[in-house]
Amino acid sequence: MVIECVPNVSEGRRPEIVAAMADAIRAVDGVRLLDHSSDASHNRSVFTFAGDAAGVERAVLALFERAVADVDLRAHRGEHPRMGAVDVVPFVPIEGVTMADCVALARKVGTAVADRFHVPVFLYEEASSNPARKNLEDIRRGEFEGLAAKMATDGWAPDFGPAAPHPSAGAAVIGARMPLIAYNINLDTNRLDVAKKIAAAIRHSSGGYRFVKAMGIALEQRGIVQVSMNLTNYEKTPIFRVFETVKREAERYGVAVLESEIVGLVPSAALNAAAEFYLQMTGFNADQVLENKLRSLKSEV
Amino acid sequence: MVIECVPNVSEGRRPEIVAAMADAIRAVDGVRLLDHSSDASHNRSVFTFAGDAAGVERAVLALFERAVADVDLRAHRGEHPRMGAVDVVPFVPIEGVTMADCVALARKVGTAVADRFHVPVFLYEEASSNPARKNLEDIRRGEFEGLAAKMATDGWAPDFGPAAPHPSAGAAVIGARMPLIAYNINLDTNRLDVAKKIAAAIRHSSGGYRFVKAMGIALEQRGIVQVSMNLTNYEKTPIFRVFETVKREAERYGVAVLESEIVGLVPSAALNAAAEFYLQMTGFNADQVLENKLRSLKSEV
Q1: What dihedral do alpha carbons B37, B39, B45, B50 form, nearest 10°?
Q2: Distances (CA, A) of A208 to A251, B15, B35
Q3: Between chains, do B239 and A32 touch, taking CB under 8 Å as contact?
Q4: How far apart are CA A225 and CA A193, in angstroms?
Q5: What are phi and psi of A150, to 5 degrees?
Q6: Residue A255: phi, psi to the nearest 5?
Q7: Given B259, B264, B297, which is nearest A288 (Cβ)?
């Protein structure tokens, strides 16, 4: 069972504090720290780790312990919106685990955080208890500075913990979501208007696919344009459908697709779905992938 | 590091003997027995196991120990061609291992088999020392009954071991090859001639792709036909190229592709290659697959 967790912490300027947080995660059994990076202008750090539910829970609590001790939101300045010392904690199902498992884990960890650190917790995305509190941006609007007033208004009691912010650590947003895929399609033209029109056609906010965020940008040095995307649920809005739609829309302007690229990581199921679609495969299941079969046998030991 | 090994043994009628062979493989540390099956009319069993080089070597030697003790080719009858108690031993690179590693392993295991059991060993496929002895069929022609005479002729000294067959265990063929993919494409027609013509167009033996074996067959109950294939090197003759060629050839007869199917296991790299091709992906590498990344981190422990 593998769950990925990508907490965002409101500290990106003191390397020794960030290193202590990374060490706290590394010290937890059953968890691997995959990556962490800090941004000084945002004054924020992002950690990526993975493990089973129990391990991931212990790692999140270890991270809260460090952050609640070392981060004071009253003195925090940075470009990125934030309302907590540990600002956002998403759980992402990767392997042998369902979204429902990740939602249950978000509730369990949220309860533990509230009990142990007296930090109020709001659930978000798939774990949200309330349609008005599904999007992170809606929950975080007003930020730490406006949090006490916001929590005093109707509909903004937290899901777990005290009815007012923690004095220095604010509040935390904890939830579950699908893995993000950063996906770009390069067009064989320098016409930025074409990339922008295609981005508008496919993104959710302007009438496109439910789980696509997109914008058109120029790659100045190469003299071409790009439809730059985030795919936020590859099961419901698969890569191949987005690719085919972009290709068809580009044709309408007499423009060809040059290439596409995945930036960073992609779940193998997202690639397998493309192979299944184009090869018109019938009756395929993930157990037929040799590596999956070997892995499932190893875990039986 | 994962190497798959698929030995074929000349015993498929005495379940207790086959079970003892399976137990001997299971008892080896560092190896997993994935599957085994027996065919009474062939009087032959196929074992599939996987592990690191050292584990796979130990398992092959454990299997020889049982087979040399329990199988006597002088009394063996069955439909399938054979010349040894352990007839064929292919090593297949799966993960974190090259074909060159599997060739080296074939030579090492071949030497050990000859030394320990006095069974002559012929190397085949990628491990072959001689172009005339690359194909299994060429090495095995004449079978056990003709083996002593064949080995006395020019060019048929074994790669390792005695110059004459083992009295009861014959000789073994050991080598390295790519994983096989059993792949079928179903056509929306009942015209068997179309399936046969397409099979002839794509298979190596009649002028098609180097690593395709194919035949056209009727799926009587469904009233359709199938191009039934083995892809013997998915890196050099990839699935997507075979699929696109079959689709184009079918069009020429006014026939559509209904669906395709993979029978049994497929390496994830073979599916990823299809996704890369159809999505016109640039700069993709296997480390971007989330599961691969997690696995490589686990193995660093």
Answers
A1: -30
A2: 18, 60, 47
A3: no
A4: 9
A5: -60, -45
A6: -115, 140
A7: B264
Tokens of A215: 């914008």
Give the separation between CA B40 and CA B17, rounded to whole angstroms: 13
Q: Which residues of A touch B282 (CB under 8 A)?
A: 186, 259-261
Tokens read off for A153: 């208004």
The 10s digit of each residue's pLDDT in A88-113 is: 999 999 888 999 999 999 999 999 99
- In this prediction the ipTM stands at 0.75
Question: What's the whole-model pTM score?
Answer: 0.78
Q: Is B42 a catalytic residue?
A: no
- Cβ of B275 under 8 Å from any chain A Cβ? yes
How many other CB atoms are found less than 10 A from the CB of residue A228? Answer: 19
A–B: how many Cβ contacts below 8 A? 135
Contact B282 A261 (CB under 8 A): yes
Residues paired with B80 in a beta bridge: none
Number of helices and strands (H, E) in chain B?
9, 11
Please report, rounded to a whole number, the percentage of residues in chain B having pLDDT higher than 70. Answer: 98
Residue with tokens 């640039």: B282
Chain A nearest-CA distance from B22, in A, is 16
Q: Report whether B229 contacts B213 (CB < 8 A).
A: yes
Q: Give the HSE-up count for residue B196: Cα atoms under 13 Å, Cβ half-sphere.
A: 6
Q: Specify whether the CB–CB gap between A237 and A167 falls below 8 A.
A: no
Which pLDDT score, from 0 to 100, does residue B301 have? 35
Tell me the C-alpha distance between A119 and A108, whole Å: 14
Distance from CA of A36 to the nearest CA of B (A): 14
CA distance B161 to B119: 6
The pLDDT score that the predictor gives to residue B298 is 55
Spatial separation of the C-alpha atoms in residues B230 and B300, rounded to whole Å: 36
Residue B300 pLDDT > 80: no
* Alpha-carbon distance values, B66 to A46, A267, B23, B110, B121 (Å): 56, 43, 10, 17, 17
C-beta atoms surrounding A91 within 10 Å: 29
